[in-house]
Amino acid sequence: MAAPSDEEGAVGPRCHHRPTAMLDVPFLPFCTFLGTLGLLCVAMVGTWCQHWRGGFSLDGSSRTFNWHPVLMVTGLVVLYGAAALVYRIPNTWSGPKLPWKVLHGSLALGSFVLTVLGLAAVFRFHNAQGTPNMYSLHSWMGLATVLLFSCQWAAGFGAFLLPWAPAWLRALYKPIHVFFGSTILMLSVASCASGINEKLFFSLKNGTMQYKLLPAEAVFANTLGLLILIFGVLVVAALARPSWKRPDSDSPDSRQ
């Protein structure tokens, strides 16, 4: 029996690898979709608070509380997710790494600032209304996420941005930093989802607007929660995808 020709041999591998190639989604279109989804989440939480919850103010009323979900979704989920994906951008894979470190740290810091403002809004509302603080599972989970986030940012700053941090420390801490980055994002998503659900239970109580009757506000807010969950899952999936990870290099640029 004659051996297969070079042409026949070439066709075989191409057919074998074609399904894998079809599933290989380019990063930039994926990133564009993810950015659009994140902006949609921010727009929806703002619309929810403006249209159904009365808008925004700083007077200690429920309108002060409305800053809380907007700032938390924007900072702790969307902006944090953007910070996590900085090193997946192909342009970061060559040249000096320091500018991208600064961008990553700055986005995370901006996320942290918005998160702290969101916490301040809910504490101001509770104190003005005489409502106890930190009594629900949502509040415990949210505060734990913020505390873990602050430790993560401080440790990352010390290990990766300070010039005197030893290389062995960076190599030791890097997988820990990556793990807790994904963990904090999923905790953020869980906190936002539980907060949306808690707000609906508290707000939709009268006979015509009960949560169990699924009024328009409940449908809208539940959809928002699902979109936030999808956003978080897609970010974690992007972080875990081997072909999108920044190649390790022993060059001086990578070790700076």
Strand content: under 5%
Compute the separation of the termini in Å.
59 Å
CATH-scheme architecture: Up-down Bundle
Number of domains: 1
Low-confidence stretches: 4-22, 250-256
Mean of the pLDDT scores? 88
Query: What is the number of beta strands?
Result: 0
The general outline is globular
Element string (H = helix, E = strand): HHHHHHHHH
Indicate the percent of residues in helices: over 70%
The total count of helices amounts to 9
Please describe the biggest sheet, giving its number of strands, its sense, and whether it closes into a barrel. none
Set out the fold topology.
Blueprint: H1 6-22, H2 27-52, H3 62-65, H4 67-84, H5 98-129, H6 137-161, H7 167-203, H8 216-240, H9 252-255
Helix pairs in contact: 2-4, 2-8, 4-5, 4-7, 4-8, 5-6, 6-7, 7-8
Organism: Illadopsis cleaveri (blackcap illadopsis)
EC number: 7.2.1.3
InterPro entries: CYB561/CYBRD1-like, Cyt_b561/ferric_Rdtase_TM
Give a description of the structure:
- Helix 2 (27-52) packs antiparallel against helix 8 (216-240), helix 4 runs parallel beside helix 8 and helix 6 runs antiparallel to helix 7.
- The chain is built from nine helices and no strands.
- With 256 residues, it is mainly alpha-helical.
- The model is unreliable at 4-22 and 250-256 (pLDDT under 50).
- The chain has helices at residues 6-22, 27-52, 62-65, 67-84, 98-129, 137-161, 167-203, 216-240, 252-255.
In short:
The protein has helices at about 5-20, 25-50, 60-65, 65-85, 100-130, 135-160, 165-205, 215-240, 250-255.
List keywords for this structure.
9 helices, about 260 residues, Four Helix Bundle (Hemerythrin (Met), subunit A), translocase, globular, mainly alpha, disordered C terminus, about 0% strand
